[in-house]
Design a protein that fits this description.
Number of domains: 1
Shape: globular
CATH architecture: 3-Layer(aba) Sandwich
Largest sheet: 5 strands, parallel
Number of helices: 8
Order of helices and strands: HHHHEHEHEEHEH
CATH class: Alpha Beta
CATH topology: Rossmann fold
Length: about 200
């Protein structure tokens, strides 16, 4: 019998696979048009991305799924190794790869195969070679211990039904003295029970 945690993971994976496929079909049909792109760019500006950052892949790498800009506080340096937790179509990872330069590297992790493939295509499209995208879960990262200078996460940890394991994995892979920059949504009060029990609310 599938556990509640497994059901939540399955629902999250299904939802984000649909988002990736929908973005692919819209863009291949040439209708990532003015209204869709305006919405993505307006959202990005509101959550603190610069115009230069937003110029990278609106509707392709940037699907408007974040809830902040972790790069604005990360203080990335040339040569650092960065992990993007829940990298989606690759927007933050690709931006980070440009900041750390050729001597640095970025690893993007996502649990949705469709998003990983989309991110890989975006890296090729924008000719960014110091980034790789791996299929994996935040609760069990396919990353060696003590290898990451900076962990980024943008509106992803809230989707996990086992947040303690996510933070444990972040601690495991981060070098001593490394940095963690998270943009996410937080609960500030008690939620109604019908919301707590509604698995779809994880994606709300």
């Amino acid at each position: 019998m599938e556990s509640s945690r497994d059901r939540i993971k399955s629902q999250v994976k299904k939802s984000y696979a649909e988002i990736a496929r929908d973005a692919n079909s819209r863009c291949s049909a040439g209708c990532c048009g003015p209204s869709a792109l305006t919405g993505i760019l307006d959202t990005g500006e509101k959550i603190d991305y610069s115009d230069d950052q937003l110029a990278l892949g609106p509707g392709q790498a940037n699907l408007g799924l974040g809830c902040g800009n972790p790069l604005s506080l990360a203080g990335l340096n040339k040569g650092e190794t960065v992990l993007d937790l829940g990298s989606g179509a690759g927007f933050d990872a690709l931006l980070a790869a440009k900041e750390v330069g050729r001597t640095g590297r970025v690893i993007g992790i996502d649990m949705t195969p469709e998003m990983v493939e989309k991110a890989k295509r975006n890296a090729m499209t924008y000719n960014i070679s110091n980034v790789e995208f791996r299929l994996g879960e935040s609760e069990d990262l396919p990353v060696e211990s003590d290898t990451i200078d900076v962990v980024l996460s943008n509106c992803v940890i809230n989707l996990s039904p086992d947040k303690a394991s996510v933070y444990g994995e972040i601690f495991r892979v981060t070098k001593p003295g490394g940095r963690i920059v998270i943009s996410d949504v937080l609960r500030s009060g008690k939620l109604p029970e019908e919301i707590v029990q509604d698995q779809a609310a994880y994606l709300g």
